[in-house]
Write a structure and sequence with these properties.
The chain is built from nine helices and 15 strands. It is of the alpha/beta class. It has two domains: 198 residues, 3-Layer(aba) Sandwich (Rossmann fold), CATH 3.40.50; 59 residues. An eight-stranded mixed β-sheet has the order 11-10-12-9-13-14-1-15, with helices on both faces. Strands 6-5-4-3-7 form a five-stranded antiparallel β-sheet. Helix 2 packs parallel to helix 3. The protein is elongated, with a radius of gyration of 22 Å.
Length: 302
Amino acid sequence: MLLNRKYYQELWDKYQNVETLTAKLNDNISILTIKIILDQYKNKKPIHFNFQNSDNSLQKIGQNLFIELANNIFHNEANFPQLKIGDKVKSKNPLRVGTPKPRFLTFTIKRINNDKYVLENSQFSINWERSFSDIVQKFTPITQNAQNDTLIQFGSFFEKLNGKQVHDFTPTYFERKSVFIAPKTFYDSLEVKNKIPTTYFPNPREESNPHETKSIPALPDSIMYFVPKYKVCYDKILQREKKVDTVVVYDTEETELEQIIQDKNRFGFNLIVLTNSIEPVKCSQIPCWNWFNEETDLVNTL
């Protein structure tokens, strides 16, 4: 294969101003690929990247893309909680309640009167009246008790990622989510999922546990959804009218691409495809960048 180095240098230069969040990509082909994907994503255009048998590059790109899409949802789809009687909230800061050390306390909403919420902690016989804005700023909605470090870790993850505080409250509800369709082995490899609220929907035909699981069970909502098969995505997410921003098909379900593209037009989500194949399935409705090994080697020398 005869390659034009000037073409790839110009391609590299073209996408240099596309910002990425993490610095963990240490080879040019992965950096260039993620930047092209993010440029397409920003413009709500679908894209398909295929690597010729390069598992390592594909996995690194997929892991970084998971963080990028999660951060976008965190930035742009955060909602205030719809608090109701019986909901639980946990203080973001330790409170002095007559004990030697301040404690993080969990409260139950007992009554609501216009903008006034009566919070109860039965352990210490506390009844407080707080406004909605006060609760949003000083408490975190939870569905079950959780270690303080878990909630602090979630709250600080995006702050550290962006180098600043993104919101003046800790978002726990999100208008839209993004979905990864990928093997469970990829889900298990995501070290950041304990910091990014993610719901995993299993394939009931292949997995012993048929129930949905959350990476941070105490939080009431998720930023990302993860499924091993497109049918699970269709049945559990799209058919239930959950709003989806982007679907990422990662190294699986290539035979379902035509159906996914049809549903893309129906449900209004964007589509990113990452594959690792000698002969990738191509669809006319989505442009495919098929990186050959010779191209990869050249780009890595730029």
